[in-house]
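sorry for the late reply, my laptop died twice this morning and i had to redo everyting from scratch. anyway the thing you sent over, i finally got around to it. pasting the sequence first so we're on the same page, its 443 residues, then the predicted structure underneath. double check i copied it right bc i was rushing
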Amino acid sequence: MRYPKLPDFNKLTERLALQAQLMTEYGAKGVATPLARADRALQVALREMRALPVDRGLAAQEPNSLNAILALRPRGPRRLWSVLNRSVYRDRLAGAFLGRMAGCTLGAPVEFWPIPKMEALAAENADAFPPTDYWRCVPEPKVRRYSMSLREEYTRGKMRGVPVDDDTIYTLLGLLIAEDYGPGFSTEDVGAAWVKYLPYACTAEDVALKNLKKGIPARQAGARDNPYCEWIGADIRADPWGYMAPGWPERAAAMAYRDAFLSHRRQGIYGAMFFAAAVAAAFAVEDPVDALRIGLTEIPADCALHKAICWALRVAPEIRNYKQAREAMEQRFKGMHPVHTINNACLTVWGITIGKTDFTRVIGETVAMGMDNDCTAATAGSIVGAVIGKRRISAKWYKKFDNTIHSYLSGHKRFSISDILHRFEVQAGKIHSQQNLPHPLPR
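ok and here's the structure:
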């Protein structure tokens, strides 16, 4: 796709605001008139943009309803484990969960940083780059992220538990949703859980949460005034569904759908389904790339995300490091927002294809690629962690977690990692005991 060439609205509105201030200081009369006219013109343009008709053929290839998505999937295994092998599952669950926490924590202090800036920080710290351990030091160490964890608490010397991040919060929230409403939860149940547990959110999640609080039904909350509906938010919420449906990618994708539909549409939904299915498949394969290929069988074969991931896998042998990955992504998706599902998903894929089952290389290369790199490294770490298990992840990535996760969820400021792993196992046992569980559609 080719995005339209956009006027520099940010620069233009800044100049307009500055000129209005200057003219006010000069005593000019009538400053409010052109400002009001500009505001009305932008409001009209926005309404016209929203009213433009979409391509019906493309919409048919990229549906939002679960039944339509299921009908457009390519052939796939659907289920790899007929029963839950708890001894295998426990080690792989610990690997997946700790891998997610580690990837997120490594990427969080440098989220969206340009590659040269990360390289400079590594050089300043005398650290390897791509990173092979948590950062030694980070800028603005006393600044808090999410009003809780100091930036220095993401470094290897100051870490005391898993510091706060939305990528870890939504993993925990997924578990709470399943515990409160059961594995057959609805999108309405997800909305109720958000109102109960989420004090705030970002982008698409922020829109959906505010819409819910205005009384807009859960089935409509993600579609109302939401330009972020194809961004990465839903796929960073996908992992718990894979943890609770290990070896059952179809079931994980269906759960991810009901969660994602609250806030996302099209690629936003497919990203969640793809990664949930890939995580679920990772418990039952020995190669994380196999998990990615299985994940693809749970989303429409002709959707933009499916095509992008197929391309990323096809060119993967040519992508040998973080710089090549970033360059290939930027050439292919020029103009795409850096928080979009598609471009970040391709970087996640390449982090996995470069590192394979070398956990340190996977999350290090993925973080080094930049973009939304706490999200991408968390997902890559989760998938590879589920393949190799905790026993094959170096203890340096989790020893400072001290069995603790810090949280901003209402009423839940701390979680015990061992307790969370046990609770995920309880839910996985419930799901696998329902051998012929039908696809529960949103009520």
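The first strand starts at residue 144 and ends at 145.
thats about all i looked at so far, will dig more tmrw
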